[in-house]
Amino acid sequence: MEDAIIKIIDLENEINQDMMKLVELKKDIIRKIKAVESAELQTILELRYLSYMRWEEIAIELGYGIDNVFRLHRNALDEIEIPERIQ
After folding, report:
1. Which candidate in 30, 46, 47, 78 could, as Cys together with 53 as Cys, close a disulfide (CB 3.0–4.6 Å)?
2. From CA 80, how far away is CA 42, in angstroms rounded?
3. Is residue 58 part of a domain?
4. What whole-number distance in Å separates Cα of residue 47 and Cα of residue 79?
5. CA dist list (Å): 83 to 5, 7, 55
6. Could you give the percent of the chain with pLDDT greater than 90?
7. Across the chain, what does the average pLDDT equal?
8. Closest CA to 11 of 26, 19, 21
9. Which helix (H) or strand (E) holds 26?
10. Is residue 65 one of the residues assigned to a domain?
């Protein structure tokens, strides 16, 4: 029984650490998005990476064609420095 309780506590601690890492990652993503100069490009990145919208949904939301959304997304990514460990 004691071993089971210790394992549960260890797992809870591991989950809490993972959650803290994810919160920091999300903050970093938000900072990167806010660093993009164009509000339009920020919106596309926010919808995709913070709201988890599909490309088709983003196109409809913004009233753009899907090809235009892809082009704008590429432009937005060109403005963001992506760390080596993620690439």
Report:
1. 47
2. 11
3. yes
4. 17
5. 39, 34, 24
6. 84
7. 93
8. 19
9. helix 2-34
10. yes
In which residue are the tokens 């549960």 written? 8
**Residue 66 structural domain:** 2-78
Geometric angle at alpha carbon 69, from 63 and 72, rounded to 5°: 120
Q: Could you give the 3-state DSSP secondary structure of residue 84?
A: coil
Confidence bin at 10 (pLDDT 50/70/90): very high
Cα 57 from Cα 36, distance rounded (Å): 22
Domain for residue 70, yes or no?
Answer: yes
CATH number, domain of 35, equals: 1.10.10.10
Helices (H), 35-62: 39-49, 55-62
Give tens-digit pLDDT for 45-54.
999 999 999 9
| Domain total in the chain | 1
Report whether pLDDT(58) > 70: yes
